Amino acid sequence: MFEQSLRDVPVDPVGLARRLSGRDCVSLFWGKNGSLAYLACDPVEHSSALDPEPALAPLPGPSQHAVPRWVGLLPYEARRELERAGHGSLRAAPHVALPHWVRYAAVAVIGADGVRVVGEDRERASELSARLREPAREASAVSVAPLVAFEAPELHRARIRRALEHIRAGDLYQVSLARRFDFQVRGAAWDVLARMLERSPSPFAAAFSWGALDVVSVSPELFLSTDIYGSILTSPIKGTRPRGSSSERDAELARELDADPKERAELTMVLDVERNDLARLALPGTVQLAVPPHVEAHGTVLHRVATLRAELRPELSRAEVLACMLPSGSVTGAPKVRAMDLIAELEAERRGLYTGAFGYLAHDGTLELGMAIRTLTVREGQGHYWAGGGIVADSDPEREVQETLWKAEALLGLLR
Questions:
Q1: Which of 114, 174, 176, 208 is 20 to 30 A off residue 380, Cα-Cα?
Q2: What pTM, to 2 d.p., does this model score?
């Protein structure tokens, strides 16, 4: 691989993305918990498989091999075969229905210490470097407006009450239900992202402009990551409060969130589902709680977060790992398949990319995927943005409806 440092371009991911405007399949996304941004265009290969390159094995070696090789969208829809009921099959097709990976021959890595381009060879790296040195471009005008009247809150309250009936009947313990907000969206994906990041800084921010599809995400959640030694991590989020008006109020809300029995039960159940999925993949005895539940601030909200770690069985393929983990128990419920059945029955639309995943497969065979929440998909100016929450036995329908607005604030705030 060939690496080239660009000391003559600004450390400005969104500004550099503007210089690639008009190129094919432009991808701008953050990884490594927000410490690095990656930027690429003009892929050399596409794949609709769960694993786009099964022969790509973990490759210990220089750090340049950790840069993205494939960038992918893995929608919730990719695992619809898990549903046992037929609900939702006649609903309108979502914006993203199948996995879509693109392979780049060169990627820009943007960090605090500057910009470098890593390519499969000198020619590919030089091509991307030349485009990043093109003159700066002005930001596009961004506008966001309701496409139609948003779904009435009462419909989501009724959805939640139905779920509570199933929980009381013993059908399941928890289910994550969401509602969709539809917008008319104008502006380049990276400029929409810049506006959303003003309100919601995110460790897994992303803007993809892939032909007719734009995806913009300010996701706070790690779906999964793997390393060259066979470890896997997942960091489910459950429990939400809006941010306060001061650091003192934030601290008060964080203590309240951390002590709330309902929120504690919700994350505990999700961790149990994730432990179960990891146990199907892991060497015996290696599933462990790496980071205990705690409260983190993410943009306009506070969340309870925890991290699980396991050591993968070496004979497993990446496709088997992804098939087992997708969709996450964090965004389905417990038991997972029964929760997916109820989601298909109760939600008004198919989820598409929402609560699936996005991210990259690196040259060294490792994965890093963010959860596709706080995520806007746009086709022909029509934007879909979902927000939801986990429903357990003592959930309050009115509070759950309010939580969807907290989680949609990154976009709803642009309307104001």
A1: 176
A2: 0.95
